[in-house]
Amino acid sequence: MEQDYVLIVEPNLTGHRWRYVEWSMQACAQAGYPCLFVTECANEDHRLARQIRAANLPDQQIAFVDPKEPRRKHIGNSNQYARFHRYFKRAYSIVRRSQAIRLVIVPYVDYFFYALPFLGSPFGATPWIGITMRATFHHHQVGIKAPDRPLVNGIKALLFRRAIRSAGLRTLLTIDPTLPEWAAQHTSRRSANVTYLADPFPDEHAEDPRLARERLGLDPHQRYLLVYGAITERKGIYELVHALTRLEHAPALIVAGEQDAGTRHFMRNHVRSLAPAPLVLDSFISNEVERDLFSACDAVWLGYKGHYGMSGVLVQAYRFGKPVIATEDGLIGWFSRRCALGPILGDLSTASIGKAISEAMTSWPHAPDTVPAARDELLSRHTLGQFKETLMQQMV
Asked: Does one domain contain both 107 and 132?
């Protein structure tokens, strides 16, 4: 008898989202459930899509569904939550015509989460699990630095409480360890479970820094500051480059990861002003190169702007024993301060950045006996194995 499938829907494979899909599919395989991943046609040439098609496994399938073009102007067409809700409903409806679905996993539920109180579940009566990464309305109440927007946060808190009572929602997973605590105090017993899902980074262990630098062609005696991931203006890269051009004895910069068009233009115009010369890898980074980069660097840049969620790069820096230079905002600042991961930036001025770089290169990492107990308690759980285990527990 043919098994029912787990359906995973993610229209956007930029940044880290494709990895959440890949890890969710691996969790399904480990749990013994066949799964079907649905994404937009524009992603047909993405490395994950090619990988799934090349493997051609009967229990790991992929399908492509585009949003339906609206026939006429409608008030709902301009609302992003409603638009994404329609897309997820369409993907589910198309798939279920030919395949029985036992469960739906939404790796990034923030697309349509606040539409749930008005539109209900896009998956009918089928049970589903969502992962939220952008819920920040509660941050002021739990001591996390974020914009103070009493009206907006109050409305989102109300919508959140209603959304987690949506039919079919089995569990809301969150990469924010403070949200389950808030939910336990502010939501009813009839609500779905709100459970912490430690944001992972691929499981790797540090290499000998000398060997890593040799493979990357780096100076064995130079200091290196790493900026890693999807490189956009929100990484604080513009302010960092400007600061480095004004610092004496500045470390060499490593910028590794695919850049957006604006950042690529900026780097092209400013790369010659940096001394020592930077290493710029504007492409997808393989696991092997990633391991060498984190092994070879002396510190990791997390001076992000307008980002209040978690960062897998922070987890990787912790795993490799590298200090981070972090913004004080959001979960990055909360983790960095609580776990003494490195200097905290009060702003992105040249003076603040210069001071933080100097501290990171001379005063970190701290001796093990001076490290807060919260560091290992919180961050040791951020493994791929723990991620899959948490997800599999919710599938049962």
From this structure: yes
pLDDT tens digits, 224-263: 999 999 999 999 999 999 999 999 899 999 999 999 999 9
In whole angstroms, what is the distance from residue 120 CA to residue 124 CA?
A: 8
Question: In angstroms, rounded to a whole number, what is the distance separating the alpha carbons of residues 172 and 46?
Answer: 28
Alpha-carbon distance of 6 to 102, in angstroms, equals 6
365 vs 123: which has the higher pLDDT: 123
Q: Is residue 113, in this structure, part of any structural domain at all? A: yes
pLDDT value at position 97?
Answer: 93
Tell me whether residue 374 is in a domain.
Answer: yes
Instruction: Using the CB atoms, write b or e for 60-80: b if 16+ within 10 Å.
Output: bbbeebeeeeeeeeeeeeeee
Question: What is the tally of structural domains in the chain?
Answer: 2
Do 274 and 190 sit in the same domain of this protein?
no
Q: Is 161 exposed, middle or buried (0-12, 13-18, 19+ CB in 10 A)?
A: middle
| pLDDT higher than 60, residue 74 | no
370 and 325 fall within a common domain: yes
The answer to whether residues 221 and 338 belong to one domain is yes
CA dist 299 and 356 (Å) reads: 11
**Residue-averaged pLDDT of the chain:** 91
The answer on 230 and 182 residing in a single domain is no
Domain hosting residue 221, numbered range: 209-379
Per-residue model confidence as pLDDT tens digits over 84-105:
999 999 999 999 999 999 999 9
Q: Structure pTM?
A: 0.87
The contacts of residue 165 (CB under 8 Å, 6+ apart) are 188, 190, 191, 192
Kind of pairing between the strands at 60-64 and 35-39: parallel
